[in-house]
Amino acid sequence: RAQLVESGGGSVQAGGSLRLSCAASGLPDNIKYMAWFRQAPGKVREGVAAISARTERTWYADFVEGRFTCSQDNAKNTVYLQMNSLKPEDTAMYYCAASPDASIWYVEYAYDYWGQGTQVTVSS
Fold first, then answer.
1. What are the pLDDT digits (tens) for 59-95?
2. What is the 3-state secondary structure (H, E, C) of the chain?
């Protein structure tokens, strides 16, 4: 059974850092992309970052502005999102997702597998 489990969320002050982890298990071999999405209360879910499972190429939303880094550890089947210089507007539930073919990485429907999310709260 495919499963994505996020961890690492929490409450920090503006300017602080968090590292989110996404532990994957049971995924099919055709998964090519892993991504992070987020959803703030009253807002639509949006793509934050993605990584190619094979090439480790990464993509980021414009609002990241160089503050976040997406990486993976294949030996641990884990994807990470290092978030620095956090802002109050980064407050959201963060989700990990996996896709066999995400030609447009930030599109939700391209992803077949989702985790339950981890809450990130940034106070000013």
1. 999 999 999 999 999 999 999 999 999 999 999 999 9
2. CCEEEEECCEEEECCCCEEEEEEEECCCCCCCEEEEEEECCCCCCEEEEEEECCCCCEEECHHHCCCEEEEEEHHHCEEEEEECCCCHHHCEEEEEEEECCCCCCCCHHHCCEECCCEEEEEEC
